[in-house]
Design goal:
The structure is a single chain. By secondary structure, this protein is α+β, with helices and mostly antiparallel strands. It has one domain (7-183). Helix content is 39%, strand content 25%. The chain has five helices and seven strands, in the order αααββαβββββα. The chain has helices at residues 7-40, 48-51, 73-82, 102-110, 168-183, and strands at 85-90, 96-99, 112-116, 127-133, 136-145, 150-156, 159-166. A seven-stranded antiparallel beta sheet has the order 2-1-4-5-6-7-3. The protein is globular, with a radius of gyration of 19 Å. The chain starts with 6 loop residues before the first helix and ends in a 6-residue tail after the last helix. Residues 21-62 have low confidence and may be disordered.
Length: 189
C-alpha cells in the first residue's frame, strides 16, 4: 500500500531520518573506535606471549597526543544539514575531486569520527578538504592519511582548532580514492 505524503512532510521526514542516521553512525563509530582503543591498551599483567600478538606501535618513538578537541556537534550538524559541496585538493599529485550529491557528502561526513585526532609530529597532510554551503567555505580541514596518520585537522582563522580520527568507512573511502588515482595514467603520487 503506497501512502502519498505532501511534499513538505516527506522532505521533513527524510531530514529527520537522515539526522537520526548520522547520529547513529557517529555513536557507532565512536563505540568502534573506543573498543579498538581499549583492545590496544592491554592490561599490564598479561603474559609476554600475548604482548607479541598485539598491534605494534608506530615505528617512531614520538608520543601520540590529542592536542585538539573533536569538532563540535553543532558544526557537524550544520555540515550534515546544509553542506552542498566538498572540494578535495591533494598535495603532491595532479588530481583533485569534488562531491556535490548529498548522499556522497553525508557518507563523507560519516567518515569523520567523534574521537579526537591522535596527532603525530611526523605526519604531514596529504591534502585539504573544503566543506561548502551555498558557495561559501564554512569548514576547512587538512587530511592526514598514511600508516599511522588517519585524521583530519580542522582550521579556524588559519590555525588548527579541531582534530578528528577517520572512521573505518572514512579510511576505506580515501584508500579507494588513492588506489583509483594510482591506476590512472598521468597521475603522480
Amino acid at each position: 500500500m503506497n501512502i502519498a505524503l505532501p511534499l513538505g512532510i516527506s522532505h521533513d521526514l527524510e531530514r529527520v531520518m537522515m539526522q537520526k542516521f548520522l547520529f547513529i553512525v557517529l555513536v557507532f563509530s565512536s563505540l568502534v573506535m573506543l573498543q579498538c582503543e581499549s583492545k590496544e591498551q592491554a592490561p599490564a599483567e598479561e603474559t609476554e606471549t600475548t604482548e607479541t600478538t598485539t598491534i605494534t606501535p608506530p615505528t617512531t618513538q614520538e608520543a601520540v597526543t590529542s592536542p585538539y578537541p573533536s569538532i563540535t556537534e553543532e558544526k557537524m550538524r550544520n555540515l550534515y544539514d546544509n553542506c552542498d559541496y566538498i572540494d578535495y585538493v591533494f598535495y603532491g599529485t595532479n588530481f583533485s575531486m569534488s562531491q556535490n550529491q548529498q548522499p556522497a557528502i553525508r557518507s563523507t561526513l560519516g567518515g569523520i569520527s567523534t574521537t579526537p585526532a591522535k596527532v603525530l609530529a611526523s605526519c604531514q597532510p596529504v591534502g585539504r578538504v573544503f566543506f561548502m554551503i551555498d558557495g561559501q567555505n564554512v569548514e576547512e580541514a587538512d587530511l592526514f592519511f598514511g600508516q599511522t596518520c588517519l585524521y583530519y585537522l580542522f582550521l579556524e582563522n588559519g590555525t588548527y582548532a579541531y582534530g578528528n580520527q577517520l572512521t573505518e568507512s572514512g579510511y576505506a573511502f580515501y584508500q579507494r580514492i588513492f588506489e583509483q588515482a594510482s591506476t590512472q595514467p598521468g597521475v603522480q603520487q
